[in-house]
Amino acid sequence: MNLSLNFLSVAKMAADDYVGFTFFVGCMAMMAASVFFFLSMNSVDKKWRTSLLVSGLITFIAAVHYFYMRDYWASTGDSPTFFRYVDWILTVPLMCVEFYLILKVAGAKKSMMWRLIFLSTIMLVTGYFGEAVYTDSAAMWGFISGAAYFVIVYDIWLGSAKKLAVEAGGAVLKAHKTLCWFVLVGWAIYPLGYMAGTEGWYTQFLGSFNVDVIYNIADAINKIGFGLVVYTLAVNSSND
Q: Is the pLDDT score of 3 beyond 80?
């Protein structure tokens, strides 16, 4: 009973609290997306159900974390860096798993999946070190994190993942290309936000500002968008 009341309770927010507003909207949007993806699983071919399950898990995990991040922000007024990275360390590797799942039809091996998971984990762990632990050397940790990100970008755009997508062709190639754009453009906001929130040689160009609103919007677009791409692929392939 107390848990239900705590979940339904909403901390008071100022009318111009756009960070709190985007936390709340992001939570609701990703929870709704999870319900949609889970309920859609039985309407597609069996080979795509795992992909839709993962899409639903990504948005569900994010929705739960956004609920806590909203309360943390409302209580302290501080950016919930810890909760955000806990969310990312769970959801971003799952987003990488989506590349493997849609490319299995072209013979993708698990080694590709584990490579992408490893690179995404390095990207996030070093990012957290620079943003929350070793802030005096944020530029160095940011460089390592950025390097891992660019290796992921290279692999899906020009490397083995790209070759498999070309072999698969059709709807799979189209979906792969769309997911690649999400990683290249949608994920690019995260290293920019990292630089805006830490001190380094880049501060003189970007300055320092609160990027929580941008992070929240980008998270919702990227995670829900990933799932919708997979859903579209599953529906189109099931109807062929």
A: no
